[in-house]
Amino acid sequence: MAQQQQRPISNRPISFLNRNGLFLLLLALLFLLGVYLPLSEAPLFLFPNRTSPSSSPSPSFVVSDWRDYSLAQAAKFVAKNGTVIVCSVSYPFLPFLNNWLISISRQKHHEKVLVIAEDYALLYKVNEKWPGHAVLIPPALDPKAAHHFGSQGFYNLTSRRPQHLLDILELGYNVMYNDVDMVWLQDPFKYLQGNHDVYFMDDMTAIKPLNHSHGLPPSRNGVTYVCSCMIFLRCTSGAKLLLKKWVEEIRAQPWSNTEAKKPHDQPAFNRALHKTTQIDVYLLPQSAFPSGGLYFKNQKWVNETKGKHVIVHNNYIVGYNNKLKRFQDFGLWLVDDHSHQSPLGKIE
Fold first, then answer.
1. Which domains does the chain have, with CATH numbers?
2. Where does the sequence pass through the membrane (predicted)?
């Protein structure tokens, strides 16, 4: 029987329906994705089930550029049990953001964190390391101008805070706000007892009894000194009313370089608390949420309340390097030795 002459291999048609063809097509696709995605400035998400190194799923929608990523998309992505944890930060404070995230990660709440980036450098850096967890609400600010306390740039950054929080409440979520010069030592959600509209900490250094009242602190010269740097707001009409009043108070006293004491968001928050009588407030226990003026300056009180501290705020000190050194001196600068515990990882 004559042997049938084979057609030269080079002339054979390649069928992409057979096993070899599908395998080659898959390899080509993986190659293209492997080359393109790491080089792109803002990744294009195509796979809803892809996970980042922090085991956080990527957004299930397509993001062609992080500038197009909306607050509604971001809040929906990070919210857990109807709650979002928010910070508002500019690029120079990226190391402090990472330090804060390490402490939150230790308490297993980092997946609900949304970083409101105030400049594009931070927006892209966070989403490069931790996709979907940073959003920018225009306009972007000058990161260098927002770096210094008391400057107009700093005021511009902090004065946007109540509107950011109100926008998240309007989307239907509870929201916890933190400044990034904070460190979590325990889980703060265990202390959010009851169903109050707003929870906050006192910023005074005077020592309160352990069983102090949880109502609005008594005013001194008609002014309370509640801290606007750690707030939890439930999605209630009372909380929304407070934030609207806070926005009004900030707009009523714009920043001015000629004033002896430059305005910022915290006095406006205290005025809003006094003028919004229809809200149910809750003052968090001082032993768990002390001001930096108490925690870092009263060692006797720290020893007496050992084991009760939940969130430590590195305030009552001005300057980036001063805050950094104090965290280091008290063993609260976690970035150097524990960056692997942050969803951002080690940042060069």
1. 42-341 (3.90.550.10)
2. 21-39
